[in-house]
């Protein structure tokens, strides 16, 4: 049995309490921004732009943490670390993992 936490429900419930009617806007914004962030990660990797990849992964990591998607944040952190080290070879599977986790997170957020 997997112990990975795709969505931290405590984080989401706290956000919902604090943001009240703005909560759905936050979720919608995260979902639309995530698509752009995934594209930016792929683009930077394709161009071997380690600086851009680091920045994109760092930004996406923060968004994932804020919304309560800890595994996706962790995956972004790994890409960020690799970009900082200039180790871009072989990162395509890491981006695949982020995209796969994104699908899980989208489905979980849709169930709210």
From TrEMBL:
Molecular functions (GO terms): protein kinase activity
Residues where Phosphohistidine is found: 58
Keyword RNA-binding appears in the UniProt entry: no
Keywords in alphabetical order: Phosphoprotein, Two-component regulatory system
Biological processes annotated in GO: phosphorelay signal transduction system
Keyword check for Phosphoprotein: yes
Transmembrane stretches, start-end: none
Domain HPt positions: 19-112
Listed name of the protein: Hpt domain-containing protein
Organism per entry: Exilibacterium tricleocarpae
Taxon lineage: Bacteria, Pseudomonadati, Pseudomonadota, Gammaproteobacteria, Cellvibrionales
